[in-house]
Amino acid sequence: MNNKVKLLFVLPRFTFGGTVFSTLNMISLLDSNKYDISILTMSHQGKVAKYYKGYNVLPEFLTLSLLHGDYRKEKGGRKIIGLMLRVIDYLCRIFNIELGDFLYKRYSKKIMKDNGVFDIVASCQEGASTYFASVIHAKKKIAWFRSEYSVYKNLISPKTLLKEQIIYGRFDNIVCVSQTTCNDFKTFFPEISERIIAIHNVQNTKDILEKSEEYITDVFEKNTFNIVSVGRFAPQKRFSHIPEIANSIINKGLKFKWYIIGDGNVGNEFQKTQEGIEHYNLSEVVICIGSRLNPYPYIKMANLLVSTSYYEACPRVIAEAKILHTPIVSAD
């Protein structure tokens, strides 16, 4: 008889970001003798999928995956289907119909049919994965919230705000990743405040230290003060401010290299960063090297890690830099 607790974690996708790695850290530390762990990712896109191969990842739901993924990265028939789904979703919204909600309910029935009832289902990030988890049948439901609601609410529509008042009411617990964001969340959901708790992101220190020893070929220059910033190119990270900051430091007579590790272009942040590099003629100083599955050797070798973010719920990269004993400069 299997007495293990059946857990289902719902991820938005396998692309780079704090959610997939924070979740991976957490499940890697769970006792496999006590927990039967399954992973449901709404889109199977993303290079981080390789790190989840040792776990039970549920089969892809094609329409859901293509609706929530980037259809432009697909090929052949999948790309055509993805484009059609986006058009259908747009038309549905005109008539006040949520295609996503329809798919969540449909696939939740299939999940229960194939896997039975889970003891716990946990959404790993706010938004779509939380909406999906809310309709999956389980004995207990947990929602992770990895942002700051007072900021997040400005990024969603009034209709979605009303929807979330209902959605979060379906969960037994809402986990915020810091006490500050927990207190902030409670101000918007006072009627369920007793269910809202704060738990910091779990860090697998042993894994981070081991990965930091991995050999890399594009090492930093010796005899140079090397700065690193890590994250997705998005407005809240403020990487586009780095060229101006770097230029100010150069004007004080200091020499250094500043490497930015990350991908994406949310709000044209990557483009703005490149324009700043060109404006200040800093192509040899501020260097965007793209995303890395393993950023830890770079963080370890750096003389300084800089976080320019104007808000973070619980900045994973700062915790990792502490583990690797790399000095940190951060915005407040």
Structure description:
The chain is an alpha/beta fold and 332 residues long. The chain has 13 helices and twelve strands. The strands form two sheets. A seven-stranded parallel beta sheet has the order 3-2-1-4-5-6-7, sandwiched between helices. Helix 4 (99-115) packs across helix 5. The longest helix has 19 residues, at 76-94. The chain starts with a strand and ends with a strand. The model has no long low-confidence stretch (mean pLDDT 91).
What is the structure about, briefly put?
This protein is α/β, with parallel strands linked by helices. The chain is built from 13 helices and twelve strands.
Estimate the helix proportion, in percent.
25-40%
Query: Main sheet, how many strands, which sense, barrel?
Result: 7 strands, parallel
Q: In whole angstroms, how far apart are the ends?
A: 52 Å
Q: What is the string of SSEs from the N terminus onward?
A: EHEEHHHEHEHHEHEHEHEHEHEHE
Topology:
Blueprint lengths: L4 E7 L6 H11 L6 E7 L14 E2 L4 H7 L7 H19 L4 H17 L2 E6 L4 H8 L2 E8 L3 H4 L5 H10 L5 E4 L2 H10 L7 E3 L6 H7 L14 E5 L11 H9 L6 E5 L7 H11 L6 E5 L5 H6 L2 E4 L8 H8 L4 E3 L2
Parallel strand pairs: 1-2, 1-4, 2-3, 4-5, 5-6, 6-7, 8-9, 8-11, 9-10, 11-12
